[in-house]
What we know:
- It is a single chain.
- It is built from eleven helices and ten strands.
- The protein starts with 37 loop residues before the first strand and ends with a strand.
- The radius of gyration is 23 Å and the shape is elongated.
- It is α/β, with parallel strands linked by helices.
- The strands form two sheets. It has a six-stranded mixed beta sheet, with helices on both faces. A four-stranded antiparallel beta sheet has the order 7-10-9-8.
- Helix content is 45%, strand content 12%.
Amino acid sequence: MPEPYAGRDPYAVPEPQAPLELEPQAPHQSRDPSPPPLVLVACSGGADSMALASALAFEAPRLGVRAGGVTVDHGLQPGSDLRAAEVAQRLRELGLDPVESTAVSVGRGAGPEAAAREARYTALDAAVERHGAAAVLLGHTRDDQAETVLLGLARGSGIRSLSGMAAVSGAGGRYRRPFLQLDRQTARKACMVQSLPVWDDPHNADPAYTRSRLRHEGLPALEKALGKGVVEALARTAQLSRDDADALDTWARQAEPGVRDAAGRLECSKLHALPPAVRRRILRRAAIEAGAPAGSLFARHIEEVDRLITGWRGQKAINLPGRVVAQRQGGRLVIRQG
């Protein structure tokens, strides 16, 4: 399935990503040296991920790492289990080991695209723990990045959403996207040159999915109206936006101790003096620390809490996801479980 837009919030503060060393280390002097780190590739059987799997198989011996693969069967189409088994066999033929096919159950609560994404990453996280992998490679290309930026722009989700997908993300920086600077057509040509069989997921052309409509209708219309180079320009926008968002996140972390009193409570007057982008990041962080689920905390929630500071007229408490309540009391902003 196409990688869906994850509903990013403009004030979401990502956890700092620790660098992951994959280069070969100096040989141990002990009799029982540690095995080389394992890198997995997440492969759907499509051109992007098959090209990435082939590249990993080629580069792994030169980098001194082990190469493995995981394919996820979402169970959304007839015969998906057989297709997943075929993909796993192709990965083995490339020389990857270990290789596994894992089936997931996709819910419907957050919509099919978001639910499939959640199930997929849960399965990949489990594979990392099961095999002790150092990283998982994902085949997202520059075209995927451009689509993500446009989706964020259309939904008015703010600068963090415009920053698209990070080259490194996840707990401990486990997810890597080495193809973000590569266009989709180049990945497909790489498969053709190597005679690698690929599978084109029909969901990628299904107009029922927002990303599919954007891919086949929206972006071509933009390129027709504006000329070639739209994808490259959107990818540059993602990087520039990420740089700006990271700087604002750092500013917010540094400013937060200065807006709390001796008891650790947020002082409204000091919050009011901060730039809105910095202040709202602090508010979002405080709500999450109080128990609000990050994935359910949207810009509209933070804007309502912000009005307790910038537009105070004796409003009642603001109810947030996770049974969290925000209210103003005596010049302090209290965010707690209700």
